[in-house]
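Narrative summary of target 7.
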Amino acid sequence: MTTATAAGVVETEALMSIGAAAQSAGVTERALRYYQELGLINPGVTAGGSRRYSRRDLERVARIRELQSLLGFNLDEIAVVLANEDRTAAIKEAYLDEETPESCRRQLLEESLQLACQMRRTVEAKRRALESFLDDLDQRIERIRAKMADE
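Modeled conformation, tokenized:
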């Protein structure tokens, strides 16, 4: 993958094989293939059909793992989060583009607000579910302690 720097210099990013990417990301090759199958990542493919992973792909895998472990999202929920984050990034880019008319900037802000509110509702629902689970565990702990005190 080639990218241009602010100075106009073109740099070539080193791409990794699936094995190296899996090791670097701390996941299995199978997980990387599955993430691609679900559309969560989109690695490059060589003429021979081998997958090649960029730094951005690995950052995306790290985000997937974070959403799984930190928030307990399943892959369907993660797909929604990532789509939301991708759209938010596109909105930001369009908003900051000097050629974007002021009339469009307001629409971009409104869409960004809707996306943020939607994401907040999703996270709030997950939080409520976790709180309910914690309440259930607290009740179970108290029942066990009471049973132990009776013996």
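The chain has a mean pLDDT of 91.
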